[in-house]
Amino acid sequence: MPSTSTAPVPHDYPFLAQPRTAHPSADMPCAAPFWPRHTHPRVTPVKGAPVSYRVLITGSRSWKDLGRVRDRLMDLLPDPVEPGAEYVFVHGKCGKGPDAVVDDWCEENAWWVDNLGAALISEPHPADWDHCAPDCRPGHRQRRRDGSTYCPGAGLRRDAHMVELGADLCLAFIAPCTLRGCRRRKPHGSHGASYTADLAEKAGIPVRRWYE
Predict the structure, then answer these.
(1) pTM value surpassing 0.90
(2) Which helix (H) or strand (E) holds 164?
(3) Percent of the chain residues topping a pLDDT of 70
(4) Of 109, 163, 170, 192, which shows the fewest CB atoms inside 10 Å?
(5) What sign does the dihedral 74-48-168-12 (CA atoms) show?
(6) Is 166 in contact with 54 (CB distance < 8 Å)?
(7) Considering only CA atoms, which of 16, 14, 12 is closest in space to residue 4?
């Protein structure tokens, strides 16, 4: 069931300020139009540049209903698209879950958006698992089955960076946590997607959540 963020809603998003309830027999689509001008302080329009609208996609690796992700992405494109506009979908380029859908979906639909004079852009931000941050503690790296090591904090650093870049909207597709050894009371949502959605809310980005 989808959930509407309880964070304060900027005046540019009046449709998100209205309570929403899901139809008992259907998944709730995103409302349209979904493309207000940027209000995030870190997104500064450049004079003469194409108008760019950004949506941040975050999701659990274990999310199964990828068809729902495609439907919600399609809901975001206005009818008609704005000539000269760039519709940018930001994601973490994970090989599983919603991230894996975004690249393919943008490629599949870019042709007709381009024919209407706009652009559909996938903006991937893969995590740098091989390198650590300056504040990583000694001995924190974890070992893969092949014997190589990785920084376990790389995913959350990547998520924070995507939020820092700014967005008009964040869509979060959150499955239950399946982390082995997790001590939090279950059930609860997967950590990465929940963290990104919460961080986006704190940054003033409207967030829509769906759960499995």
Answers:
(1) no
(2) helix 154-165
(3) 76
(4) 109
(5) negative
(6) yes
(7) 16
